Amino acid sequence: MQITDEGCIMHEVRPCFSPSQHNHNGGSAYPCMRNFANRSCHTLIWEAWVGPRTPGMEIDHINGDKMNWSLDNLEEVTPAENRKRAVLLRELRRNGRDPKQMTRDELQAIFRKYRLVDPETIE
């Protein structure tokens, strides 16, 4: 903790890794912010720039890179859509395509092709 010249208290913000909220067996770690009650980094970024999440929605990393917290890589989606996108991204990687090297437009076109953009199309 530091105190600025103006008398404000500054807390150090450090990423840490906690068990993934989506992986209930604790097999993977997920980046979160220690001084923000271990809330996920991508959620903090979304809420800071866009506003609170819509109830029942999740913030998705479009290219699947959990360390890419840029706002243009984040999107609010339903939980079902988020799971289906994760399966599709794994399939792309298995077929030799790296989603991290693809543009947002390329990924959105793939999601549209498999009906993973419009939440009303999710079963």
The total of beta strands comes to 7
Class based on secondary structure composition and strand pairing: alpha+beta
What about the largest sheet?
3 strands, antiparallel
Helix content: 25-40%
Beta-strand content estimate = 15-25%
Task: State mean pLDDT (0 to 100 scale).
Answer: 76
* Overall geometric form: globular
- For the termini, the CA-CA separation is 48 Å
Helix and strand run: EEEEEHEEHH
What strand line-up does the widest sheet have? 3-4-5
Poorly predicted runs of 5 or more residues: 22-27, 117-123
Figure out the total of helices: 3
**From the alpha-carbon coordinates, what is the Rg to the nearest angstrom?**
17 Å
Secondary-structure topology with pairs:
Elements lengths: L1 E2 L5 E2 L4 E5 L9 E5 L5 E2 H9 L8 E4 L12 E4 L1 H16 L9 H10 L10
Antiparallel strand pairs: 1-2, 3-4, 4-5, 6-7
Identify the notable features of this structure and list them briefly:
two-stranded antiparallel ribbon, alpha+beta, 28% helix, 123 residues
Summarize the structure.
The model is unreliable at 22-27 and 117-123 (pLDDT under 50). 28% of the residues lie in helices and 20% in strands. The protein starts with a strand and ends in a 10-residue tail after the last helix.
Report on the structure:
There is one protein chain. With 123 residues, this protein is α+β, with helices and mostly antiparallel strands. The chain has three helices and seven strands. It has helices at 41-49, 79-94, 104-113; strands spanning 2-3, 9-10, 15-19, 29-33, 39-40, 58-61, 74-77. The strands form three sheets. Strands 3-4-5 form a three-stranded antiparallel sheet. Strand 4 and strand 5 form a beta hairpin. The N and C termini lie far apart (48 Å).
